[in-house]
# Entry
Amino acid sequence: MTSTASLTLDPAFVVGPVRRRTFGSFVEHLGRCVYTGIHDPEHPTADADGFRQDVIDLVKELGVGTVRYPGGNFVSGYRWEDGVGPVEDRPRRLDLAWHSTDPNTVGVDEFMRWCEKADIEPMMAVNLGTRGVQEALDILEYTNVVGGTHFADLRRAHGREEPYRIGMWCLGNEMDGPWQIGHKTAEEYARLAKETANAMRMIDPGLELVVCGSSNSSMPTFGAWEATVLAETYENIDYISAHAYYQEKDGDLASFLASAVDMDHFISSVVATADYVRAVGRHSKRINISFDEWNVWYQDRVATDLAKGDDWPVAPIILEDKYNVADAVVVGSLLISLLRHTDRVHSASLAQLVNVIAPIMTEPGGRVWKQTTFHPFSLTAKHAQGDVLQVALDSPTHPTAKFGDVTSLDAVATRDPETGAVSVFAVNRSTEGPLELTVSVAALGELGLVEALTYTNDDHTWAATADDDSSVLPVANATAAVADGVLTVTLPPVSWSVLRLG
Ligand code: AHR
# Structure
């Protein structure tokens, strides 16, 4: 049965700017993300640093802005000094987080060279699990100080004369999680984060600092953690992190497709908590969100994937989820949620970038290919331009086990004030039938249809592979038309679309 839904757009109702940092990603020393992912010296396209050019090309096509590094759970046991200097002298270390061995052939200098090649802004995380203020200062001196002191001169001796001047830093990772090496209570972490931030700003007052929020909104300490940490660190930091992963559980596709309801709730709760702390502390600035881990992740598989006992493999095949069309629709809808909160979500990272729960997959020494999730991400990164507009949304609802009744349509729109170009990103998250969508664009002036692309498949379980990553692609939606200030289009069930007007 076909249902109808509508959106009304008005250029006066701006949420905030589209931020390139919303389209960030994440490279962790985990599985094959770094080794045989971005870095594979034996590969035919590898450059002098061992980086795969074919991967860099796809990272650029994906439209990634920032990349968080080097973890993740990994960073909470990481000694950054192991990864600098002559490669043959670098120690191999146990990686307790992922029961692996890290050969340390890639470290901060290599990563920064990769960022320059891939046109990426780095977002560096410091270890506040097994380490503290001093080691955070040491790596900051290594990366950001001009010279004349031990670590700055060490960087120069390693061939990098100019400081990297990395601007954005995460103060640890998921310190609320009992799985984290050096897990802390909110009070313990808050003090350490505050002192670390304070000292780091003595070196470089302009740093943008991210304090750890909750690892997900189901954590027992969710809300209280944010309130405690922000009460202590408010004046010392700029962002609080949020992490969320979603998966289809027990065949409940309807709830899975509505995952953005949880992300919306997560964001509003953190914003409310940050603003509460602002009011109580009589602060003037606002703390915004760095949603620096989000994705679809079938976490139930992890436990069986990790090595055990005396087996500490290098670059094991772990967390290599294969994504289907429904997963891609969810990734597209999560991006809609992030964009609609652009006033308070100032940065976000799709976790992760290559091989590990990733849109880009590689074969060691071989092919590179795109997962289904690549498409909504790259098209949103490309076509979300200018300002995010509020959309007045009217949609039928359908029931879900997890979230109750949800709107079948979810959507956001952007408008470039320079060119007048408009993009509407829309998801039909119903499994039951198509949605006939009308979008009132009369207030935006004379507009014609530039392009309407829809990503869907009759079999939403279709997943891309190395042999076939292009049988199902976003295709032109022939139902789209614009007349008399109204765009009409039919959105198939379980679909993601971008509708472009200009
Ligand atoms: O992205 C995979 C893992 O998920 C990260 O290492 C950790 O921060 C999170 O729990």
Notes: DSSP finds eleven helices and 26 strands in the chain. The domain at 19-383 is CATH 3.20.20.80 (TIM Barrel).
